[in-house]
Structure formats: C-alpha cells, structure tokens
Amino acid sequence: MLNDMLYAVERSFLTPDELGRDYRRVCRVAGLHPTREGYGLIHARNTQGERYTLMTSDVEYVRTLAGAPGAVLEGLKLSAGKFPRYRRGWPDEWLK
C-alpha cells in the first residue's frame, strides 16, 4: 500500500460508455475485472513526483471530484486508502 500523501492531478473514467469496444482491453492492461459500471481513475503524484493511478469502483465519487473547479482538483490531497486499487504510472504509460 502507498504510504505517501498523494496529490490529484487529473481524473478519467474507465467505463464501457467512455471506452466502448476498448473497455475490456484497457481493463485487462490495468489489471481490473470488467464491470458494468466501470471505474473512476485519479491520476496523482506523490511528494517525490512519482506518478500513480488510483482506481475505484465508485465512479460517482470520481464524477463528484470531476465537477469541482480545476484548482480544487489540482490541490486535492488524497489518502491512498480511499482507493483500494492503484498502479504506478498513468494509463497512457501502460498502453505503450
């Protein structure tokens, strides 16, 4: 588990609606089981600048964050405990 404080940089959604036919492939690359609801992702950095993607099945929680002004998301400090799944790097790095 991550022990460092994480700072949100961006958010995205790994859902069937967002990705269409690519949904199952991206889930496989991310190490996630495809679900009907999908996943909410937070792209974050720790205090050393390392990139992490935090994943939650609570898509609505991430949608709530997405509705916040940009400055709020950029300054948001995240506890890794809120997101039961995480992976080093950001999705664009996994698909290379």
Mean pLDDT: 83
Termini Cα gap: 25 Å
Please outline the major beta sheet. 5 strands, antiparallel
Rg on CA atoms, Å: 13 Å
Provide a concise account of the structure shown:
The chain is of the alpha+beta class. Helix content is 31%, strand content 30%.
Question: Could you explain how this protein is built, in words?
Answer:
It is globular and about 35 Å long. The longest helix has 8 residues. The model has no long low-confidence stretch (mean pLDDT about 85). A five-stranded antiparallel sheet has the order 4-1-2-3-5. A hairpin with a 4-residue loop joins strand 2 and strand 3. The chain has about 100 residues and is α+β, with helices and mostly antiparallel strands.
Looking at this protein, list some descriptive labels.
31% helix; 96 residues; 5-stranded antiparallel sheet; alpha+beta; 5 helices
Which helices and strands, and how do they pair?
Elements: E1 6-14, H1 16-19, H2 23-30, E2 39-46, E3 51-56, H3 59-66, H4 70-75, E4 77-78, E5 85-88, H5 91-94
Antiparallel strand pairs: 1-2, 1-4, 2-3, 3-5
